[in-house]
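Minutes, project check-in
Item: structure for the 561-residue chain
Input as provided by the requester:
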Amino acid sequence: MYVTRMDYSRLSLSPCGYPCARRASGPLQILQQTIRFLVAAVGLAISNHSMAQELKRTHTVTYDHYSLIIDGTRKFIYSGEFHPFRLPSPDLWSDIFQKMKAAGFNTVCCYFDWDYHSPAPGVYDFEGIRNMDAFLDAAADAGLYVIARPGPYINAETDSGGFPGWLTTIKGLARSTASDYLADALEWLGKIDPIIARHQLTNGTGTVIACQVENEFYNNSTDGETYMQDLEDKMVADGITVPLTGNHNATFVTGLGATDIVGFDNYPQGFNASNPTAWSAVPNYYEGIHESLPSDKPLYLSEFQGGSFDPWGGAGTANLYTLTGPDFENVFYKSLIAQGVTMLNLYMTYGGTNWGWLPEPGVYTSYDYGAAINEQRQLTGKYTEQKLIASFTQAVSQLAKTEAITTDPPTDPALMLEGRANPDDKTVLLMLRHSDGTSATTEQTHIAVNLSPSFGYTYDDTASALLYVGNWSHVANQSYTGGDYDNTESFSDTAGDSVSISFTGTAIRWIGSTTSNHGIATVYLDGNLVATVDTYSASEIFQVVLSLLSGHEEFNDGLCP
């Protein structure tokens, strides 16, 4: 099967008869099949009326290893960031929400800025342009779920990260259990939490499906964990019943202060747009990160780069759009799908304007951010690419539950083929892209498509069928085994040590990891040297096909790597 993906609304054959990967037209190819040979969807039907009907009853919001689950149905959360304080005109909020909905987003993620609502100690303003009830109502009217992020700290390039100016007069350390700071922080939550709670999907009175605790907080000391727990306890006491999420990478995964859903953020292109056509490496480690999490946690990117702020003296907005333009979206966002991400928030989808004393000193009035919807609320080329991806994620419901599967490597070594499959209906997703995500070359290749996906391995490294000879170490449940299948690893650094397996068949695949402290292995089939494998790589890569022997007449002998 030779297919070139030009966009998700059509599939076409390449003139050469080979799949072709081009950076400009999208080096990440996604092919989908089931027993019925499903093809990517052309469009996505949207009904805000049905959302309004749903709000008349209570709902459940749960989660597991694969995804968020709403009323028993898995949801791929495709979210965009939008801040009400950067568009202080309630009549225009619906304009942004409707454009997001039309782009295929099913969720909006938003910060609530403490500083914006509290000009003095004990004084809070939620009227007019600060009416967050109206903001959340507008999101629901547009048919969007909401992930609320009330801080207390939010960053977002705001002055003091969203802390009110008067907070600098207290003696205690911010973001700690200092009594004066904590009292003020809990008071803020006591004002904003009830607003969020009134709009929870679980109450049947709104569309809030999750609430984030703090932001970018990496202090895992006893005081830091206690502070996080204090905030979480306050949110629950204030009536928050939806899952509590984080944006602290792997800081609060288990124990005191742990959030229900762990959140990660990543800005792989950074914020220097002076050379906007230069690409950084495509992150390829999220599959491993997911495996290292507790088994009930989905893979959630609470912030992934949707643009970039422009500092004083920066390269300008035009360069920001090139730095994170449609080509970037086409490659990087799809790579996240290839690694099992099912909750994705793009920061920003609409950036807006830094009014008055809102911004931190490093940025100026415009917060356009090179986002898909620009500061003037006009659609950009990035919007079109985001819509293609959104339509795919919402039309193909199987994406909300997939597991990694092994694939045969393309015939062109400059390309890589990744695979995922839904374990329930066996829908298969194949992702073809450059091995080097920064490459701009045009490549041609053959790919082998396995229409009967298998999950896991025939034999894990702990299986009794494997015969180890020499000084091998067998470890499990360690920090460095998180990305390996079943969280186990067997290794030896002694020359001449071996592991062998007897089998019957025409093909065998050896799967392991590569990293900076791995070396050379030789592979023997029936006593004959058939391959020499270099398992070194500069960074750790999990689930690599280290050796593949196929196309042989059926043999009944052994393999010894």
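Outcome recorded: The chain has a mean pLDDT of 87.
No further action items on this chain.
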